[in-house]
Design brief:
The chain is globular. It is mainly alpha-helical. The chain is built from 6 helices and 4 strands, in the order αββααββααα.
């Protein structure tokens, strides 16, 4: 006989779920978790931690929109009222090109950490060769979080420049 256990709100909150203002429980992404813990904050930076957080969300969105499988919405037609014609826009190609341009704006040494957190939604792991709790282990984790912040800063610069050109 199989007994099913249902989790209550307190149990889900203990397991890392968050409660939105509308009462819905959801699982936070690693980027959201780092943002809430203050890891995306860099002192004396022209960008805020909010800018870095939004840039990380944007690169993840571009990646997932560029690699959509299943329902193919390859061609989306917009009607231009002035010319009364239709312009075909390849949506997946647009997001793929923007994603590739964003990757090029991030140096290679920062990209690995940004990819793990934003795209793969995994926690940063420290090397197994250092014992847990030692200074070298802590420095390794701090170093990875600094690389994440610097990579997200390059992405924020890329996305903010794109918005300034379009307006």
């Amino acid at each position: 006989m199989i007994t099913q256990k249902y989790l209550n709100k307190k149990g889900l909150l203990r397991r890392g779920y968050s409660l939105r203002s509308d009462g819905i429980l959801y699982k936070k992404s690693v980027l959201e978790k780092y943002y809430d813990e203050g890891y995306l904050n860099l002192p004396e930076s022209p960008f805020s931690d909010e800018d870095r957080f939004r840039a990380g969300q944007r690169i993840a969105f571009d990646y997932y929109m560029a690699n959509k499988q299943g329902v193919k919405s390859a061609m989306c037609h917009e009607t231009n009222i002035a010319t009364t014609g239709s312009v075909g826009i390849d949506v997946e190609l647009y997001y793929k090109e923007r994603y590739l341009r964003a990757i090029k704006s991030v140096p290679e040494e920062f990209w690995g950490v940004v990819r793990i957190v934003c795209i793969e939604d995994k926690e940063l792991k420290v090397s197994d060769k250092y014992p847990i709790g030692t200074l070298l282990n802590k420095n390794n984790k701090y170093h990875q979080k600094m690389l994440l912040c610097l990579g997200l800063e390059r992405l924020a610069k890329f996305y903010l420049q794109k918005n300034k050109k379009s307006s």
